[in-house]
C-alpha cells in the first residue's frame, strides 16, 4: 500500500536557522521551544550566548523547551522540566500571514533565581487575539546566570564576567529584531514588558548601550531601577566586588566536589552546581533591604552596565521611550507572609537599621504600637518600595521629555479576599495576560477587568499611548499632579496617595 505524503499540519515559517512548524489554538498560532542561542553547556557554561545552530528539516515547534535550572520554590512549581540547555523562546501570533503587527516581548520574574517562560500564566494567546505578536523566553538564572570570577573575566573578549542572564535577554531581543517579521510582527514596534525581576531587567536594558534600539516602549510591572549593585572587581558602597563573591563561591564548591581548578566546574553536572545555592547566601528573617536586593545577581561589569540603572535614570541617560509603570496595593503581603516580630523593639531596631538618619521620620510614617501592627507596617513599607520605584521611573521619563503613565493595581478578586493577603506581588499577572487558572475563583468581574486592562496595554503596544475612544482617559504622569490610573472595578483616574512614604524611600536610597 502506497504511503501518503506527509505535510505539516500547523503553520510553517522560515527563520535564519531553518523552517519551523508551529501549532494553533482557537485564537492564535503558536511556535514553542524555538532556540534563540546555542545551549550554554560544557565550554559555553559561563560565557556570553552564542548563535543557535541551524537545521535542515522542518523543526517542530509545538512544545515548550526546558526551563533553566533553579531551586524548588512553591510559587514557581509549574516550571516543568529543567535543563542547562534552556535558551528557548515562544511566539504567539494571530496569523503568520499578517504583517507589521505590534510585538510584545515579556521577561518573566523570579528574583533572577526562579521562573520560566513556559509557566501557564504567561500564555500569550489573549494578547495575540487582540492583534499582537507575543514573545516569551527563558534566560539563565542563579549561579549559572550570574557568576563572576577573575578567570572568567580574563578569558572574555570584554574583560568582564557575570550578567550572563542579561546577555541572554539581549540575545533574545536581537533574535526578535532579526526574525519576528516571519511571524507577522514589526521589528520596529517592539514593547518590552516585564514583572518583578523582569521589570528590573527592563530598567537595566534601558540603561545598557548593548540594548540600544532593540525595543521602542516599555511596561514595567513591580520593579525599578536598582542602585544597590556590586561592581565587578572592586568594592562599592560597602559591598564586596562580584568577583570576590564569585571567588568565595568557587573555592567552597571546588572543596565540596573534590575538584581542582576553576575549569573543572565546567564539566560538573548542572544539578551539582545549582544545588549549591546562589552565589551569596539567601536572605532570611527581617533583613528586608537585602532580601529585596539584586546584589547577588546583576553587577556593574563595565560591559552590560557602566553604572547602576538608578544613576543612569537620575542623570537622564536612559532610553527615551514611552513607559507604563506601576505596582500593587499590597505588594508586600507575599514577602511578610509567615513572619512575626518577637517584640516591638525588634521592629524599631529594624527600621532604624534600614533608614539610618531618617529613622525618626520612618517611625512617624510607619508607626506601630504592637507587634501585629508592626508587621502590617512592614508590609506597607515593602509595598511602598515598589510604588516608589514605579513613581521614580515615570518621573525620570517625564524629566527627559518621554511620555509615561503610572498605575496602581487595587482589585481584589474573591480568591484574593479569601487568602487575606489581598493584591500581593505578582497577583496581577492573570489579569494582564487573561490567564485565570480557576475562573470560578476569580469571578466574572475579574474577566471584565482583564479585558479592559488588555485594551489599554494593546493600545500602548500599538501606538505608545494606552488611550483610545471608548476608554476612560488615563492621564499622563507629571511631578505636579502625580496622576495615576487605579486599576479596579470600576477603573478610576487618581493621584499618588502615599507621596510622603515614597519620598522617604527615595531619599534613603533603599531600592
Overview of the molecule:
The protein has helices spanning 125-129, 142-146, 150-155, 164-179, 197-207, 242-257, 270-274, 288-291, 309-315, 333-336, 344-355, 359-365, 371-399, 414-419, 429-433, 439-442, 444-463, 499-508; strands at residues 12-15, 18-21, 23-24, 29-35, 59-60, 88-93, 101-107, 133-137, 185-195, 217-221, 230-231, 299-300, 323-328, 404-409, 483-487, 492-495. It has 511 residues and is of the alpha/beta class. The chain has a single domain, classed as 3-Layer(aba) Sandwich (Rossmann fold), CATH 3.40.50. Strands 3-4-6-8-7-9-10-13-14-15-16 form an 11-stranded mixed sheet, with helices on both faces. The longest helix has 29 residues, at 371-399. The N and C termini lie far apart (70 Å). Residues 1-6 and 281-285 have low confidence and may be disordered.
Structural topology:
Blueprint: E1 12-15, E2 18-21, E3 23-24, E4 29-35, E5 59-60, E6 88-93, E7 101-107, H1 125-129, E8 133-137, H2 142-146, H3 150-155, H4 164-179, E9 185-195, H5 197-207, E10 217-221, E11 230-231, H6 242-257, H7 270-274, H8 288-291, E12 299-300, H9 309-315, E13 323-328, H10 333-336, H11 344-355, H12 359-365, H13 371-399, E14 404-409, H14 414-419, H15 429-433, H16 439-442, H17 444-463, E15 483-487, E16 492-495, H18 499-508
Parallel strand pairs: 2-5, 7-8, 7-9, 9-10, 10-13, 11-12, 13-14, 14-15
Antiparallel strand pairs: 1-2, 3-4, 4-6, 6-8, 15-16
Helix pairs in contact: 11-12, 13-18
> Any idea of the CATH class?
Alpha Beta
- Count of helices? 18
User: Which quaternary structure do these chains form?
Assistant: single chain
CATH A-level architecture: 3-Layer(aba) Sandwich
Fold-level CATH name? Rossmann fold
